[in-house]
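Translate sequence into structure tokens.
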Amino acid sequence: MKKFALYCILFLTTAYGFSQKVSDETISELISKYKKDVRGPYKDIRWFCTDGSIRQPKDPCPEDIGPGVQHARYKDEVVKLAETNQIYLGQILAYTDKKDFWDAENNHSRLKQYQLDKYLRSIDNGWINQKGQFYRGSIQAEDEQAWGIDFYKWLLADDANIEKNFFLIRQSLKDIPHSGDDNLSQTIRSQSKVISDEFLPFMDLRVKIHSLPEISDIDKVKAFKEKYNSKLSTSQKDQIDVLVSNMQKFYKPIDIKSLVAKNALFKNTPIGEKILSYISSHNSETAASYLIPDTSELLVDIRESLPDVKNPMARLQLLDLSLKLEDLIFKTAPQWEPENLQQTLEKICYLGMATTGSGYIELSEWDKINLKAPIENSGDLTLNELTNTLENARSLVEWSASMVKANFQHIVDVYSGFEPKTYGFIDDKIRGSIALQLGESVGRLGDFIAKESALTNKVMDIPNQSSFRGLNPGYAFGELVVVDGNPDNIEVNSNHIYIFQRPPSDLKPVAGIATVSEGNMVSHVQLLARNLGIPNAALSDENLKSLKKYDGTKVFYAVSNKGNIILKPENEMTETEQLLFVKKERNEERIEVPVENILLNETNILNLRNVDASDSGKLCGPKAANLGQLKKMFPEQVVEGLVIPFGIFREHMNQEMPNLGISYWTFLNLMFAKAERLQNEGVAESDIENYQLEQLAILRDAIKSMTLSPEFVSQLENQFKTILGKDLGEIPVFLRSDTNMEDLKDFTGAGLNLTLFNVINKEKILQGIKDVWASPYTERSFKWRQKYLLNPENVFPSILVIPSVDVDYSGVLITKGISNGDENDLTVAFSRGAGGAVDGQSAETYLIYIEGGTRFLAPAREPYYNSLPVTGGTLKKLATFEKPILNQLNINQIRNLANTIRKTLPKETNSDYKGAFDVELGFKDDKLWLFQIRPFVENKKALSSGYLESITPVIDKNKSIPLSKKI
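Result follows.
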């Protein structure tokens, strides 16, 4: 095999070269070609002998050099694709090195592609092997099985693999042959999809099988065949028969005794004793309400025991047993039909436990969520206690889905570029999990609580509306746009309302937004939405799919102060709702950038130590001014730094633009003057905006190419040496845009302009300064300013230059409880590495009670994080989720910091500001570093809106609800 690999490398080097990536269009064409090819992606069949030699199919390996294995070789194009794009089509396991297949350096891409290939084959009649699946001898099942066992023996020998990749390894067992059971539940979903694609009337049954599968579906499928017998083709009837047969196998009564083989290697271990006790106790037990609790506990026990069981094959047997137990719960959960609140809470608790045991939730997260079943006959719960339980349970469903996405979304995005059918893979994984059954139970609890509290959502006519929850209040009217795929390449319209899978990190102005993955509540996107009164909500995957049919509809959208939601078509709007959108005067409710105190004659680079909050908007923006203030208050927690004030930018803008005969500043002001003239002439706003964007593109490119004055460069070199202790180009730094349009009284401007990470090269720093100066003139920054500022032409950028700290983790502190509205509590969101939480990462989030204790709101689910090497630039490193990010020491430090900021900052700055603060910070070896502080700006209009108040019900949080109440 090594000889063949060497041949491939030489062939590719001479014939193709390494650098030429194959386009998605070309890959799509290859796939279409392979579907029609009787050999699929394979070239020919050979014997591969133990000594590395390759022989013809009729010339087996001689006995004296070992038996060898027979299988296909890949087509040259397939080999090329693996080298150029790291796309591995039609992988043959017996042909693959174990370490290469695990592919740890590339986030296990090859293993995940193998799973994705299995899915595509199941839903698309063999996919690239539509005809090649009959290519005899291309793959030998017994060799694949033997390889799978050998692979897991190697993989499971390493404790770290079990600890860090439990979910992925356990999922892979469903797809990699190793003498385990077939993944029948996925087969059933795939077959139902194939039938509905060919025969549309089957769609309702397919939806039922995908959304809420249960044993009664077998009779429904049989009845369907009988009803449509005359319209079904022979092939379709055969497909339905196979589906029924598989469903009957899947729902066959479980023989608990058969779960463990006689030769089980774990029998004489503590977990083995628990398993035997479980089998003995449930040998004849079939009632789901008794079976599921003990099965769920055993699932967690098995997961916890794996590090103590050292035999890799015993570990493999335990994982296979774990999959059988998950199937048992998946099948029997619909049979557990709670009659009252007590039983509903019990079912949710144990399904949550099973979800944890199956790897969708980390053990540390389960410990923190505090979702316990109430003690029987324990009386009543208050509405507030019940709502907290619902929030925790709903969180488990969301985190389960986000675990699947964190593991597979990247490779799904890659494949979706050339195979659109790939996008159903994530949905299939989620629907094949216990989280599906958990979500159904949580939905029932949500509906019950909504009735008890009168806090109901009214979202078109879609089902499961209790999955919606408001993130910040506001109202909007516009066209509904439902985006089911990657949002990053979507060109948004400021008058539209968007439903996203996840929020794009560089969101331009929109009227309203709702997302399946909210990212985190303190990201720049969320803060902008909260600041500007843009209605913002979270919803489930199922909700998004239900709303797809309304894509393009004009709708009214409102989120109340308590988080209940209205989304309805234009023709159902009340007169009051219509009056909310009567055309306002252009300047009404917009904000003016204060420029009366700006000092543009300061053209010296400043030491961060000599800047404080009083300089904000005068010499520099609030980032530098406030960080300088923090440097005075917390000298050991703030790095040294230097500040390039507004005056230096303004001085450079007086230079003449190349080939135009006017200065940069004059060019800018002429553009705004013409835009105002066009407006007075009645030209359409869209045309004016397009003119301005064209002119700003010219200006932006010119600023990026402008010549920096020799005096400024010399001063920068001197200040680097004096303040930062090293020559320019010898220490990596952050260049942070810091404009006078940020952190105004009613406008945050968070994340609208450029920050450059960890720049070290002298020329890159000098170029970076120009790039940062140009960033306020990007389309995104300009559109936000135009929408909310009265004088967007008076925007001046300063630059904060600080040395990089390669923090272990970083994030945001808000000195207010956002989720509960309590001014005394704290909200923190942290991600691993640098730049955490601000760009919408799925971050670890807590509500920190100022008097002590915390509430865990969300785990981190970001598979990659930024590392800052001393050589400059950023490195993407792979994250795992088995351990929480913040420890108790960190939380105590954050609490103490918040107390100090609240007490000291107003005094130090002679400020009467009484609101909350938004702080960016990080930890390196448990030392806290401060990077930024700004006021936390909320939209007072939204918070005090009479309309929003009118749709917000008054809730009696202390209302007592008996656990015996019917549900």
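Note: The two ends are 63 Å apart (CA to CA).
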